[in-house]
Amino acid sequence: MSARLLRYVDWVLLGTTLALMTFGGLMIYSATQSTGDPLGFVKVRVLHALIGLALLVVAAAVDYQAIGRAWRPVLGGAMFLLVVVMLVGITTMGSQRWIPLGPLGGFQPSELAKLALIIALARNLDAHPDLESWRAVIPVLLIAAVPVGLIVEQPDLGTAMVLVAITATMLFAAGAPRRIMLALGGATLAGVPVLWQMLHEYQRRRLIVFIDPGLDPQGAGYALIQSKIAMGSGQLFGKGLLHGTQNLLNFIPEQHTDFIFTVVGEELGFLGAMIVLALFAIWLWRGMTIAYLAKDRLGMVMAVGIVSMIAFHVVVNIGMTVGLMPITGIPLPFISHGGSALVVMLMATGVLLGIGMRRKKILF
Amino acid sequence: MDFQAPRQRLFALSLIIAITTGILLGRLWQIQVLQGSAYLRQSEENRIRDYVLIAPRGIVYDRKGRPLVTNRPSFTVAILPLELRKPAEVMATLAPMLGMTTGEIRARIESGRARLFEPVRVKRDVGTRVVAMIEENRMDLPGVIILAEPVRHYLHGKMTAHVMGYIGEIDEDELKARKSERYKLGDLIGKSGVERKYEAALRGTDGRLRMEVDALGRPLRVMGRVAAVSGRSIVLSLDLDVQRAAFEALQGSGLPSGAVVAMDPRNGELLAMVSTPSFDPNLFATGISPKAWEGLVRHPLRPLLNRAAGTAFEPGSVFKLVTATAALERGIVTRHSTFHAPGYFRLGRWVFHDLKAWGTVNFITGIANSINVVFYTLGHRLGGESLALYAKMLGLGEVTNIDLTAEVSGTIPSPSTKMQLVGEPWYPGDSVNMSIGQGAVTATPLQVARMVSVIANRGTLYQPRVLLMMRDRDGTARRTGPVLQGRVTLKASTFDVLHEGMQAAVLRGSGRAAAINGVAIAGKTGSAENPRGKPHAWFAGFAPARAPTVVVVAFVEHGFRGGIASAPIARKVFLAALRETPDRRAGPHQIAQRTPHVIAEPRQ
Which of A33, A235, A255, A358 to mutate to test the interface with B (most CBs of B within 10 A)? Predict the structure, then answer.
């Protein structure tokens, strides 16, 4: 790697990523105390982080142009794994998402699909700079439709939503005209009733109780109510690290994965939650800066895709813990326990760093 | 050519991210800072459970310090309504374990809905096997908890049932009446007898146990404890030995219903009070089952009724003591008066019968053999007003105010009241009938005991009592003194004649079956005719005759002859009461240090 590349490494972005990841390890320790083996969870976490960091370095080192050119095997590989998971995967909560991987836990191809789609979309949007006509837009939409379709089939509504959001954001950044964006938005809204029919019963319940958690306080509304209680009871300064009662007494389901932010809110209070939110804000600001300073259209669109992925995760996940969003299985990037998500997020960060490292020369 | 990023679009995206982040931050501020304390309270309610620690009720002792009722540990199955996640499934699992129907469990839960955080007691006093079953199936029984609670244990069951009374869950009327005393739904409260009368002392102060629980409601640790304070102990004047003798003698009579009262004429302390048929108050200690309750209430002989005080009977010849007193006081008769007793008494065209023709007898023999004609003669000359006056002087016709529940006053008719009540005039024959305790006269065995006490102690009317000693809130024991209800001023000669006549009755008259060798006993029998069946059998007496320490009234419903059915019962009670030294007033502590000496029964 040349000295020039190293000179443009965005240390703030990297530092923020490491800070969030370390913080996540601490939160996982706290959230898994009641299992009796919190260190075990942290060890697995460190293993995931090391793999992820290695892939981050690789992703940064490889020229993103090369990554873009390899979009077919990347997307194809991810789609292949999605099909595999439907055939052999482990079923949790009524959907098949996991491929068992021994000591590493399970592998979730849907996480990988997010990054693969970003790469494929970036490459194809770069190849069709003129998006004024539907003829240029439709092939791009078809590329997105394949993973979205497979993931809806799992079914994993949250991840499908992430993919749709990423696609929309990248189309917008690539310059799709307003009429096409509006038409796509309208089509999505029109598709909602159809989607509703396709949902599992538990998914519908989640959405209904989001409107009124009191409808089923011991069932579907339970997590929503308890997570708000956890967040709110943290008040300004929190109950102290490792001292959250909602956390310790298992009032919150999935408190070390999807609901880990409730542990932050309960134990470290508004202050802790604000620090996490600020770290994400810094991360996203650096990401947007990289997109803005990208050397070419491919880098810009790819960076926007990665930033939108992280942003969407953060907003939906935190929004869920404070009752602003319905419950979906979307993890909090870098913090939630879960190897596939962490490794993929770190790889994406690597790609983002790589785009930044190859940015335009700044003219003084 | 240099690539130029779409500045506006990237700015728009950044703005969207900034705005949503701002919304999240605002929302965090709202629920964590603005509403934080409310959520904190909810999280505390989530994890903290307060359990009531039921205070054991005070222990009740007999006069010699022997416990009559204590408390034993038990397990209660209860439900926390708020944590009952799947009521139908939980009830279906629980019902067979408790041997109840789901309907019964549901009814219990509904009754406790008013207080969501309080456990609703579904079944008290379950066995350890049930406890083990529930613990094993804890995961399937969210909201079901086991409480360790004291249960009232009456050591002598039926024997002391009517004095002790029983407890039960507080009902809505009681709850309203006692709101200021911090009773709450599900509390046990004294319903009758000593349990009710001394509720305030016997009831303890419940404690609280504050536990931390997890999301499944499993207790993790104790956060705080306010210990329950036991109720205060009380000592009754009852003597368990006398009580037992009375109960066994009454049961041994072969007739199903009756009552015995034994009382110290020097102060009104009750040594025994028994009523048959009896009931087991332990049935009530854990909440009586509807079936058992039905059985008691529907029973034709009404076991819950205290026949010693709760209902009045025709006193029959026992009432002759009133007639004799009135006649002696009015100077109509003296010890030496003689009567011609041909076996009947003629009044106009009415004839009043006697057992047999006695020939010429003196007044002492008249009392001793309960000769009707003697008392017909006196009653006719005295008239109804005089008889009623002396009956009331001796405490009949009004409640004794004993410190127990459900006492009746009985009836003493008189010419003036008969006109008011029945609308008929008082005929001379009414006085004749009343002289031997027939007609509308009724009295409780307890009233008769008080009357005989007045005769025994020569004129002092004491309130009958069962409470001997009580501990104050600060722990000091306080002995209750005798309560003087009045003085009956009669001539000394009147008492002399009554005593002599009653002694003669036991020595050679109708009450011979009560006699004990070596002890002078005075008594009066009665066979009271009544419209419901065979005559009631009475014996009322005192001993030792010269310095009486105990009055005994034995009553057998439809026992036919007082001298045959009741006098032997009284004898056994006298024996038990006199086995102790005459001075019972020392109290349990001194009594323990004293060697009792047994009265020998010398041969003659």
Answer: A235
Alpha carbons A79 and A93: distance in angstroms, whole number:
22
Could you give the CA distance from residue B109 to residue B122 in angstroms, rounded to a whole number?
7
* Residue in B closest to A274 by C-alpha: B25
CA pseudo-torsion sign B137, B139, B145, B147 = positive
A28-31 long-range contacts (CB < 8 A, ≥24 apart) are: A28/A256, A28/A260, A28/A337, A29/A242, A30/A241, A30/A242, A30/A244, A30/A247, A30/A263, A30/A267, A31/A247, A31/A255, A31/A256, A31/A260, A31/A263, A31/A337
ipTM of the complex: 0.93
The verdict on A180 touching B (C-beta cutoff 8 Å) is no
The pTM of this model reads: 0.67
Residue B401 half-sphere exposure toward CB, CA atoms < 13 A: 10
Q: Please tell me the distance from the alpha carbon of residue B286 to that of residue B152, in angstroms, as a whole number.
A: 8
- Domains of chain B (ranges; CATH) run 49-74+153-233 (3.90.1310.10), 240-279+305-581 (3.40.710.10)
- Is residue A6 within 8 angstroms of chain B, CB to CB? no
pLDDT at residue A321 greater than cutoff 70: yes
Query: In chain A, whose CA is at the least distance from the CA of B3?
Result: A296
Distance (Å) from the C-alpha of residue A222 to the closest C-alpha of chain B?
Answer: 11
- How many Å apart are CA B577 and CA B242, to the nearest integer? 6
- Percent above pLDDT 70 for chain A: 92
The answer, for A35 touching chain B at a CB cutoff of 8 Å, is: no
How does DSSP classify residue B541?
E
Residue A173 is nearest to which of B9, B46, B220, comparing CB atoms? B9
Least confident window among A135-139, A142-146, B24-28: A135-139
Query: Which of B351, B30, B495, B586 shows the shortest CA–CA distance to A322?
Result: B30
B422 alpha carbon, distance to own chain's centre: 34
Domain positions in chain A are 3-357
Is A311's Cβ below 8 Å from some Cβ in B? yes
Q: What is the pLDDT of residues B231-247, one digit of tens each?
A: 899 999 999 999 999 99
Distance from CA of A25 to the nearest CA of B (A): 22
Residue written as token pair 């009752």 = A323
Summarize the confidence of residues B423-451 as an average pLDDT.
90
Quote the pLDDT of residue B589.
Answer: 41
Please count the CA atoms within 13 angstroms of the CA of B108 that sit on its side-chain side: 24
| Joined tokens for residue B6 | 């779409």
Which tokens belong to B83? 């944590």
* SS3 labels along B406-441: CCCCCECCCHHHHHHHHCCCCCHHHHHHHHCCCCCC
